[in-house]
Amino acid sequence: MRLAVPAPRLGPNASLIGRAGSRALLDTPALVIDRDALERNIAAMAAHAKAAGVALRPHAKTHKSVEIARRQVEAGSIGVSCVTLGEAEVMVGGGIPGVHITSPQVTEPKIARLMALNRTAHQGLSVAVDHPDNLRALAAAACAAGKRLAVMIDFSAGHNRTGCATAADALDLARQARDAEGIEIAGIQSYSGQLQHIATRAERRAQALAQAGILRDVVRTLEREGIAVPVVSGGGTGTFDLDPEARIFTELQVGSYVFMDVDYLRALKDGRNTPPFETALFVQASVVSVNARDYVTTDAGLKAFATDGPPPEPALGAPAGSRYEFFGDEHGKLFVPPGAERPGLGARVECVTPHCDPTVNLHDFYHVVRGDTLVDIWAVDARGRR
Length: 386
Description:
Elements: E1 30-34, H1 35-52, E2 55-56, H2 66-74, E3 80-82, H3 85-93, E4 99-101, H4 108-120, E5 125-129, H5 132-145, E6 149-154, H6 167-179, E7 183-190, H7 201-224, E8 232-234, E9 251-252, H8 262-269, E10 281-289, E11 296-298, E12 313-316, E13 323-326, E14 332-335, E15 348-352, H9 356-360, E16 365-370, E17 373-379
Parallel strand pairs: 1-16, 2-9, 3-4, 4-5, 5-6, 6-7, 7-8, 8-9
Antiparallel strand pairs: 1-10, 10-11, 10-15, 11-14, 12-15, 13-14, 16-17
Helix pairs in contact: 3-4, 4-5, 6-7
C-alpha cells in the first residue's frame, strides 16, 4: 500500500526558514524576494506619491499577494487595482480595502461573481466599464442584488485594449451611468500601457503628457455636463513620475515598481545614473549539468520565467557579463565570458526576471530573503485566478 506524503504547506523550503545561509540551499527553481529591496521600493513610491499630491492604488496583478498588498496599504496606498475578478476576490477576502477591477466584467458568470463580491466588499469596490450594454447589465444585476455598484468610465488612452474609443463615447456612457439605477460613478480610468516601456525618457514624457492632455479634455467635458469625476485613475511604473506633471490624475495604478524586471530597469535608467527602484525579485536556479564545453545547464527554463520579454539576466552566482538562454521547458543555458570560471555542479544562480507579472504567475511561493537567509515564505495567493 502506497502512503501519500503530504507536501509542506509552504512548499519544500519551509524547513529552511530562519536558518543562516539558507538562501543558497533552496530547492530550485525558486522565486526569491529581497525583502529589504521590496520594502525600500514600497516606501520610495509612497514618498513620491505624497510629494506629488496623488494617491496610490497599486496593481496587484504584479505580485498577486495579499501580504504585499497589505504592506502597500500600510505604507499609504488607498487600495489595490486588479485586472481579473479572481484577483479581486482574493484581495477582498484578504481584507484589502479599495479594490478596483481595471478590466470590464461582461459575461453572466462574471457579473454574478461581481455582485457577490460587491455584497461582501465593505471597504470599497469598483469596476471599469466601457460599453452601454455592459453598463445596463451591471445596473440590472446591482438592482437585483440590492446594492449599488461603483464604476469607473474606462477611456482608451491610445492603447486600445479596453476603454471608450472617443471622448463622445465616454460622455455618452457617463450620462447613462449617471442616470442608471444601481450605479454610481466612482471616476474615470485611463491607462496608457503602450507608453510604459518606451526606452527614451524624453520620448516617454512627451507622449505621456500628450495623452494626459487628451484625458484632461475628456474630464472637463464630463464636468461641464454636470457629471462629477472624483477620481482619475491610471498611469504605471514607466510613467510614475511623468503622469503627475499633467495634474489630471488623482491616483496611480503603478505595479512593477515593487519588483522591477529587465525591461523596466532598462527603461527607467534612461537619464539617470541608476533606476529609481531596486531589483527585488529573482528566480534562483541550480546548475544541473556541466558537461557541455561552452555553457552549463540550469534547472530553470520556460516554466520558470515569462518568455514575452528579453531573456533573464544573471545577477548573482555567475560572473559579470554572463548570458542566459532558454534550453527547453525545464532548463536554461548559462554562458560565462571568455576566461571566466563557470559555476560548478549544484551552484546557485539568481536571475532578474524578464517580465515580473507573468513570471510570478508561474510560481506558488515567494521565498523571502534578507541577505543570505530565508526569513519567510509567502503564497502567491492569486496565482491563476481569473
